[in-house]
Design brief:
Layout (H helix, E strand, L loop, with lengths): L12 E2 L2 E2 H23 L16 H13 L3 H23 L4 H22 L6 H11 L7 H28 L6 H14 L4 H12 L2 H11 L3 H7 L1 H16 L9 H28 L4 H11 L1 H18 L5 H11 L1 H16 L12 H4 L3 H19 L3 H11 L4
Antiparallel strand pairs: 1-2
Helix pairs in contact: 1-3, 1-15, 1-16, 1-18, 2-12, 3-4, 3-11, 3-14, 4-5, 4-19, 5-10, 5-11, 6-11, 6-13, 8-9, 12-13, 12-14, 15-18
Length: about 400
């Protein structure tokens, strides 16, 4: 094990890199594909509500329950956690080398924002990169805090996120009678996002995604959310996870520096609580008949603490399972070092499969069938990442990001 003064005591490193963070990032980029499959292949509301499209069989409902209980939000949370930790690492390394870490970070966020907008506008509407770039700028204000104060700040901003979510839910509940045109419009908007709006409402999206690349792009540009608005609406939850990631890095949690008994405690307790919470929320949605109010209440309000707790639980479990000399550890770590490239490559492959500029399979598969595509994509990530890292040292998009942000050849 190589030691670096930038890392806490007990950090698990290999060749000057934090193995724990590479593996965590690798697991996240692979597992988030499970959450994103409905977003690639089905109309937008089906992402949260299986009755919107693609759930015709018990196995489809079982697939939805499994992803809700085991995956939903926690792999995105893991990415956010690691984003905050990686941000600190970049700042520390730049400052240690005599540079200006804050200036480098802001340039990195600027480049990431542009790349994210390209992904969002021209490839896939589910992009998270532009949002991370904006939240990353805000997160810079917190880097000097102690782990304790970072945790307190994370709890506060997560509380803000839950309050915002409750206000949205309250607005939906208040509009349920649809007594006025405004209430009807609000109700329809939430149905289109979390409910079962019907074939007529979904047909324009299906037609656009099955059409040419130009048609799909025009639809995205017309219907994509505004990243600045997203910063206000979902930014607090993302920021909370990033701040928690900073605290976890500074305290040694993400570097493998904690005693194993503490990782076991967080893994067992965090995942048990998260799984139980999501199971109850899923049961409530099913009992409601997949009513838009139940789905929205779960997505925007009630699930938030279970997402964060489950994210920490998964991080602890993955760190416990790391074996530095293991074949799987090396392969997954390589996929994590190329997480940016693998994330965009996944979007390109999946949109080629489901969109009209490729095979045109959008809204043609049942929900459970979608997951047959996951193992081949995992195999591809594990197969190509390690030789690419061995030959080039990093992935192509990682090199592009670094080169442009540093304004020199890396």
């Amino acid at each position: 094990m190589n030691e670096s003064p930038l890392f806490s005591a007990g950090a698990i490193t290999t060749r000057g890199r934090l193995l724990t963070m590479d593996v965590l990032r690798g697991v996240a980029v692979m597992a988030i594909l499970l959450a994103n499959m409905p977003g690639f292949a089905l109309p937008a509301p089906a992402y949260s509500n299986p009755m919107a499209w693609g759930a015709h069989r018990p196995v489809d409902i079982a697939a939805w329950i499994a992803t809700e209980v085991l995956i939903d939000g926690r792999m995105r949370g893991l990415f956010s956690l690691l984003f905050g930790a990686s941000m600190l690492l970049v700042l520390q390394r730049a400052d240690a080398a005599g540079g200006n870490g804050a200036a480098l970070h802001l340039r990195r966020m600027g480049v990431l924002f542009v790349l994210g907008l390209i992904h969002l506008s021209f490839i896939w509407t589910g992009d998270i990169l532009a949002h991370y770039a904006l939240v990353g700028v805000v997160a810079l204000a917190f880097v000097g805090l102690t782990p304790r104060h970072l945790v307190i700040s994370a709890i506060i901003v997560t509380g803000v996120a839950m309050a915002q979510g409750w206000l949205e839910c309250f607005g939906l509940l208040a509009s349920a009678a649809r007594a006025t045109p405004r209430d009807q419009a609000l109700w329809n908007a939430y149905q289109a996002a979390f409910g079962t709006p019907g074939v007529a409402v979904l047909t324009p999206e299906i037609t656009a995604m099955r059409g040419s690349w130009e048609m799909a792009t025009a639809f995205r540009l017309a219907h994509n959310g505004n990243p600045l608005w997203d910063l206000l609406m979902i930014g607090p939850e993302t920021l909370g996870a990033m701040l928690l990631g900073m605290a976890a890095f500074k305290s040694g949690f993400l570097t493998g520096g904690w005693p194993r008994r503490l990782y076991r405690r967080w893994a067992i307790g965090g995942l048990a609580l998260s799984f139980a919470g999501y199971a109850l929320l899923s049961a409530g949605i099913m009992a409601s008949g997949y009513d838009v109010r139940a789905v929205t209440l779960s997505e925007l309000f009630l699930a938030a603490p279970f997402r964060l707790i489950g994210t920490i639980g998964y991080a602890a479990l993955i760190i416990l399972l790391i074996r530095p000399e293991d074949w799987w550890t090396g392969r997954i770590a390589a996929a994590g070092r190329m997480a940016f490239t693998n994330y965009i490559a996944t979007s390109l492959i999946m949109t080629f499969l489901f969109y009209g500029h490729g095979l045109g399979q959008f809204a043609r598969w049942d929900r459970a069938t979608l997951y047959l595509m996951v193992p081949p994509l995992w195999a591809l990530m594990l197969t190509w990442s390690k030789p690419c890292i061995a030959h080039f040292g990093q992935g192509p998009l990682e090199r592009l990001w670094r080169t442009v942000a540093r304004a020199r050849l890396a």
